[in-house]
Every structure is written in structure tokens, then in C-alpha cells.
Amino acid sequence: MRHRTKLAALALAAPLALPVAAHAAMDPNVCNVAAGGSVTSFNMTCASTNDDAGAYSISITWATVSPCFGAGAPVSAATYTGTATGTTPEGSISGSFTTAGAVSGAAPALAVVYPNNPTGDLSIGYSTPGNDGTERHTMQLQFTCTSGGLLEPTGQVWELDATSVGNSPNSAYCSYGNVTGPVTFTPGLGASGPTNYTMTLTLNCVGANGTVAGTYAVTITGTDGGGCLGGSGTGTISGTGPGGVPVSGAWMYGRHGVHYYGFPPSGTGFIHMGGQTYGFYLWLDLVPTGLACPVYAGSIVGHGIVMGV
After folding, report:
1. Is the omega angle on the peptide bond into residue 67 within 30 degrees of 0, that is, cis?
2. Which in 73, 102, 224, 284 has the greatest CB count within 10 A?
3. Which helix (H) or strand (E) holds 236?
4. Helices and strands: H and E segment counts in the chain
5. Closest CA to 121 of 139, 147, 109
6. Do residues 114 and 153 lie in contact, with contact meaning Cβ atoms separated by under 8 Å?
7. Is-contact 43 125, C-beta < 8 A?
8. Angstrom distance (rounded) from CA 94 to CA 127
């Protein structure tokens, strides 16, 4: 009964627990990676008109075997996770973040890679103290496995705010209620051990560019390592984007009760679409079918953003 009462309270609070809007920074930073940078350690310098321009020094600690190293690497369509630390023009990378109703404190910075032999994408979600309060960021780079996990010479850094919807020309925003669909859990969420989940989502996203704005129909399959009252997980994304263009990618998230935070620093994500890589960030709420724990099925409602350069 205790689990049931808490889960019911969380479900009722769901629409209030997330930022009501989000946007990509107007001016993405274009970054030059120093020679010799790898998927475990690199330096780079980023140029733009915003306060994220300057020098970066990043180290990544991989939870298991890092991509391009060890038996079986690289593996096509695999997702690897790690913890990112380092310094940026706005201070040291921090895991702390604050959003109304969300967990505050030591949420680690996260990294996701999507190897596609011989190249792959590296996406890092993190926060910094910032000049106007804690700021969430995402960093996107590419690497080459045939060179031992060396990073390509260029990349990008984006900033996410929870203030208003921006009009960056290659980004689209999917407002709250325009990300919906069913989800199932096997075994039930809150049962013993990890849970496999399948989300079948429709996203209706608006923006100035028809390549990223429009309807997405995606299926996300993955594993959640938590219970009814919190957890974290990863997943693989497949489906179609605007105009029926094939979409594939991956995401990772932190979860506080029924709230999925798939944005930096508590999560991150990306998709491949039309020969390009885009940031793909989801703020999702779970409405369980019944309020008992474990949860075996439910519906998803939320919002998100697709970010390009």
C-alpha cells in the first residue's frame, strides 16, 4: 500500500514536474578538437557568440569496456555509458541540477556512444554553474575506431534552457502532450531485478525547418535498472521522422518515480536521420495502468526537442 500511495501521488503530479518549455541555444558552438583526443580523454576549443566559447578539457570513465577497445569492440548499434568530468569555459562539469519537482543533487554527467564501424558518435550531457544559474548542455562529437578511438577534429556544444522555445533554424520542439504512446514492462517495473521496456511513441514537433519539424513515430526498447520510485536506464531508438525518413539512435535517462529525464545532465540522446546526427531529448511522464507496484504497462505523455547544427 505504501508503494501504491506514493506512485499515485507521483502520477497526479506528473504534468507539473517538468519544465514547461525548453530550447536550444541560438548560437551553437563549433569546436576544434586537439590532435590525439580519444574517447577517454580530449581537449578542444569552441568558438561562438555565447558564453560557452573557449577551452574544454574532458575525461570519460567507461562503466565497462570502452568503445574501440577490448573484445568485440566496435559493435554496431551498441550503446555504451560512462561518466564525464572536466573543465569548461563556465566552470567544472557538475552533475547537480534543479527543476521543479525533480531530483536535485549529485546526478552524474553522462556519455553515450553509438559505434557504427568504423565511426561512431559521442554524446555527453552535463551541467555547469553557468552565468545565469545551473545550465544544461550537450556535446556531440564523432570518433574513428580504426584509429584507436580517436576523435574527429570538429564537434559542437549546445546549451539547453527551460525558459522559452527558441527558433534555432535546425531544431524542432515537441510541446507537452505532443509526445504520447503506450509502454510495457517485462518483468513489471518494481519487480525484482532489471526491467525490459518498450515505448511506442508519436512526436509532433514544430520548427522552421521541415527536415526536423513534423511527425516522428519511434519505438524505444531498453532496460531500466530501478523500481517504482526511481531508477535509470538506456534504450535504442528506431522508426521514422518527418516524411517517413528512417530514424535510429539511442538515449539514456534518469528517472524519479514516473518522470523520465532524458536531457542533460540526467540523460542524453541522439538520432541518425537523413545522413545527419541530431540531439534527441525527451521529458516523459508515465501514467501507469493501475496504481499498484510492480507496473506492467501504462501510457507515456511528455515533450522533447530535436537539435541540429
Report:
1. no
2. 284
3. strand 231-240
4. 1, 19
5. 139
6. no
7. no
8. 5
